[in-house]
User: Fold this.
Amino acid sequence: MKASASDQRSILDIQKFDLQSATLRNKAATLPELAEITSTTIKQNNARDLRIAAETELSDVKRELARAEGDVEQIVTRITRDETRLSSGTGSAKELEQTQHELGTLAVRRAELEEIELEIMMRVDAIKERISDQSKEESELGAVIADLNIRKENALAAINTELEGIEADRKATTASVSPEFLALYEKIREGSHGIGAAVLAGNQCKGCNLTLNTIELQRIGSLAEDEVVRCEECRCILVRDH
Assistant:
């Protein structure tokens, strides 16, 4: 294939634009904010899960507290009934003595149940504190994520602006290049990790950094200026540095 010296110089510019675009797209895909958003979101999800678990636990403990309060209330009702009976003096001496004994037993039981009730109330307070802490952490992490998203969007906007400028320059450059020559470049680039053309600097291909032997250099030197040269190693278009 033949291509004018001007087209061959232009293909190097197009290669430069493509490498710049690839670098920017890689930068966009590997923004530090992306990794931070992922790790922070995991932390926020953990805080949320712990909060939900604590809220479920709180519901269970509140039911346990309600049962304990009901038990205490029953004991208090019985104590009030017995105290009323004693105060009225109704019944035989033996019955009153039994009532007095029952009051003592009920008082002990009441103390036990109130101790249980107090312990459950303390557990409720501790769980509420955990829920508050997890909710606060969840909210704080949400604010961090929101800030990271703003930073990410700003960085992406800047990258996209650069990409648009490069694409405009590339489009303007390709307009003057032979379609057949451009198609060859694109085909090579697709199969060679993004490298379709490189300069031949001295005796070295800057696409793969292969040093060409003397015979190959002499052969290339004997070719017409518009003859398209390919690297023997990486097969990219070699543009001679005239």
Summary: The longest helix spans residues 93-174. The radius of gyration is 42 Å.
